[in-house]
Amino acid sequence: MPRLFLFKGFHRILQTALIHACKCQPQDLLALLSHSTPISKKDLRSTLERLEDFYPTKDICIQLHQTLNSQPVDGAFWSKFLLASDELKRPLLARGVLDFVLTTPDSHNIATIMQALRSLVSYKRFEEFHSLFDTLVQRLTDAQKKAFSDELVELLSNTPYWNEALGFLPSCSHPRGTRNLSEGAVQFGSFDDVFRLLDNLNPYNEAPSDRFFRLFFDRLGDINDLKHIDRLFSVLHEKVWVVSDQTAKVITTWFNSRVPSDYQAQMEDVQISGTTCSHCKSKLPVFRIDEENLKQMADEFYQSAFKGTRQEHLYLTTTPKELSTLDKFLNEQTMPFDCIIDIMNVVHLLDAAFVPEKATRLVCEVLRNLNRRFGFHRFCLVGKGARVVGNKTFWSAVKTLGNQLGISVFTFITNQRSDDDIFMLYIALWSGPRCHLVSNDEFKQHRFTVGLDLGMRISQWQATRQIALCQQRRQPFLEPIQCDTRAHGSLSIGWHIPYDDKSQRRSYVPPNHWICIKPQSYNK
């Protein structure tokens, strides 16, 4: 008999049996799975959609279960049945199966018990959840506990027993486990519990989920004590976290819906120009990085990008000889550079084929514009630009320009087979806090290669120190941002919170959309 026919026949039997399950004798279900054809969640859902909700008795479930066990059908049937019942809002169907699983847990596999636990959470049957969860944990081996640690923490985090998940946290994926636990703490724990967990999340890219913020502000309700909000915003500042646009709406709505409202929040069309808020005209702090921290970044980048952190990564981007040449070049400098220029990016601005004389004029024009706009005086051209600097007219033109403007120009030309990007990045970092990098490259690969923490710090530095080249004569540069993009403020003066609306921008540039929260007494 064709398999498709068996499959369709199975569904007819399933549909008929379920429709009459609460009315007919249990024997009518014996033919339910007479054919060994698995049923997908999609097909099961399609069948259940045509049914009214009803409570399947334990006897019905037992006979159906025995039929399942007698045929090589589908070990995930009950888990799919529960999931489809929950999605279709069939609480009686789900309750009947849940009651059956709770009374016969040893008869069910891990997939069924996991889905039963999820359903128990959704129905807030927490005591029964706890009992079944303990049964599951006792059954799992140490290897299985480690393999299922993410799921176990997520389950516990949605119950009053959230803190029992701490034992599984070391085996969890980071930051997923801590994020889930923070959601549990904000529902069932104290605010001190919440902030202790937030402290375990890393800066920059490990902000809590949108659900966490929604739960946080839901729990606050209409209370007048704003110390928890002030503490939360202080954590945003410390961790350099940028919230999503959905969370921004939650925050704005919470402030504006309070009666009486002591604060007014605005998120539409609020941007920072330079360091000035377009809405309230307040000045935000500029981004600052001290000499010591930047030197540490440069040293870490040198080790990771040039030498490599593992044996197989040694000197993949350069050669020992070229690296020695770089060290000698920098040791000979009497002072740091003001500006590092990606020389090939400048050459690529030429519309026509490469002509040395045109390239020289273009480089000189870029130097002149940078000096006029930013006041740079000490430049270093870096890259595979031997064709430019090797031309006879180049140094004559640069010398003339230097005499006119009082600037000095140095070059570090890399080998054709070397990765010139890391040279210009390193020389810029080496030159200190005031040095800028002129390049259209985003250096995404290098930020990824050096590791998450250093990569994020380099990205923050790029946003405030990298200048991109444009071909428009009126606007030859895309200037770096000035503002330190993180939460700023206090309850007394108000807060500015950056949020990400997913608009297109360079990968290292932070969003320029903000929530402006001001006391009602504040006057522009």
Automatic annotation (TrEMBL):
Subcellular location: Mitochondrion
Pfam families: PRORP
Gene Ontology annotations for the cellular component aspect, listed alphabetically: mitochondrial ribonuclease P complex
GO BP, one annotated term: mitochondrial tRNA 5'-end processing
GO molecular function: metal ion binding; ribonuclease P activity
Keywords associated with the record: Hydrolase, Metal-binding, Mitochondrion, Transit peptide, Zinc
InterPro entries linked: PRORP_C
Predominant location: mitochondrion
Domain of life: Eukaryota
Family: Belongs to the PPR family. P subfamily.
Protein name in UniProt: Mitochondrial ribonuclease P catalytic subunit
